[in-house]
Structure formats: structure tokens, C-alpha cells
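Why do we care about 3D structure at all? Because function follows from shape, and shape follows, mostly, from sequence. That is the central idea of this module. The next example makes it concrete: a single protein chain, its amino acid sequence, and then its structure expressed as C-alpha cells.
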Amino acid sequence: MSGPEHAPPTAPPTAPLSVAVCGTRFGQVYLSALRRCPERYRLAGIVARGGARSVALAEEYGVPLYPSVDQLPGDVDAACVVVSSGVGGGQGAVLARQLLERGVHVLQEHPVHPAELADCLRTARGTGTQYLLNTFYPHVEPVRRFVAAARRLVELRTPVFVDAMCAVQVSFDLLDILGEIFGGVRPWSLTPPAAADGRPLRSVDATVAGVPLTLRVENRMEPGDDSTSLFLHRVTVGTDAGNLTLVNTHGPVVWSPVPRTAPDAVGRFRPGPGASAEVLGPVEAPPWKAVLEEVWPDGVLHALDELAGRIAEGADPLRGAQRHLTVAQAWQELTGALGFPQEAGPRPGSQVTAADLLRTSG
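And the structure:
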């Protein structure tokens, strides 16, 4: 298998990079990330339309609010474009190209149509700037832990299958997670799923990097809200030695060796060596407060550090971009086969905890 295409972040320049954030919905995570690391990054301003949320965030962070990228000051080094691109009906890719043409390096939140992605990469190379697509979840620590272990596993043993679940909103980054593990998604193939019949999960049989993939996608959304889903990611990489599972996007990561219960000479079961399952890292996933305030912002910083390393190095912006291009093409094929998301329901009810499940009725 080839080495990871997310190169270890190079130390950013001594002077903090001046960074603007475009968009304030998911852009709130980027703003939080920049506040966590003032020694490496300085928030130069927010680019947004000027709604109540954007105004409030500009006041909270004490930075100017710019209605367009044309009004950004000339000393902005980089910009995080956290605005929907063409596939989501937004102008994210247009903003990214405008910034690159101004000589501003760009970190763009996914998903991006493959044609828009290729166009941004060409623009970056032509203007001597850096452009990096952020598929986000491959940068968060629990997923990085899973990917590192899975890469080592498929180096040691033969991959047999991948079994995965995801919400359609995060299907792009699921494919990129698999691309990280296998050094790319090719050879890739997909069997169109059966017609939608109201089931909440659509099952897709595919091949990723030549490995059989069974994928179940929650292809549903609430009208006007693409942030709703019953879950994010669950991934199992199966090998002849056992299965490695990312139980939830935020962990835990569980290694389950193949069963070892060989019988003795007269047929009595005898336990084999080792545990029946082991957890790699923390046994529990972090609470949502820590996810929003630490795990996700730290993931953004991991991606920003990669961009900063490329800037300091003067790297070719096309380096490592082939995997993202092939992921974007595979994602386009997948979402085309799934069709338009159905309306989600029922709406989430009151919170249920593990303690609730352990409590006996009556």
C-alpha cells in the first residue's frame, strides 16, 4: 500500500498566518479552531452576507465582517471557504477561485463537484497558491486513530471486506476515509441499488481499492436542513485475522480477532490466546460538548496545519490531489445512483442515555 496522502503537518511559519473564514454556519467550527491556536493563526475577518448570526459572530470574535472577498485586506494569507459549492447550490467554488486569483491560499470544506475541484486546482497552480480540499472527518482524532490502525492492518494481513454505514451528507468523507486506508479508492465499481421503497437505509454493493464494500446509506434529510441524520459513520475493515471497527465517527475503535476456540483431541472447546475484542484508545467516545469545542476544532487545525506546511514548502498544489479527484468522482457516481434524498422522519425525540437502557421497566 502507498503512504498516506495526508502528509504529517509541517511546522507552520513563525509569524501567524492571517486567515479569513467565509461562511458562518459550519464556519463556526473553523472560527473556534482559530481561537484555539493564536500562536499559529490570526483571524483576519469573516466573509458572509451579513445576517444576524454573522454579525453576532464578528462581534464575538472582534473582527470585521466583509460582504465579499473583494473587500478583504491585502494582508490576508489564507481563507477557509466553508460555503456550499455547486453540488449544494452554493457559490463555494466560485469564492475559492476568486480568492486564489487574488493570491490567497484556500482550504475548502467538502463536498465539491469533481469539475469544480479540478478547476480550483488548476487555478491554484496557475496563480502559485495552495488549494486544499478539507474532507473534515479524516482529520478528527478518532478517525485518524482508526485510519492509522486500519492501514497497518491491511499491510499485515489480507483485506477481505469493508462494511460501512453513513448518512448521505457525510458520504464524500466516508469514501475519503477508505481512500486514506487503502491508498486510494481505485479500482472502484458500484452496482446500482434497488429502487427506493421507503426503507431508511439504501444498500449499495461496491468495490473500493479492489476490496468488496457493502455500504448502507441513510439517504434522508429533513426539508431545509441537511444537518439531520440518525448517525454519521460506522466502518469495519475485515481481514483474514479479524475485523477493525470504527463504532462511531468519534470512537471507540475496536479490534475483534477471528474466533479462537479450537477443540482438543476429544472435541472439548479450549480457549485460544488473546482477547475476544480490544479497544484501541479511549473506551468511550467524547461527549458532544467536547466534540464541538475540542475534537472538531482540532480536526480543522490539523487540516490548516497541512495547508500551512504546503505554503511554507511551496509545494505543487496538485501533489496528493489525485485521491481527492477520484473520491469526488466516486462520490458523484454514488449519489447519482442513490437519487434525491427522501424526507426524514420521525423527528428525533427526547434524549436517551445508556443509563436509560440499563434501567429495568416496571
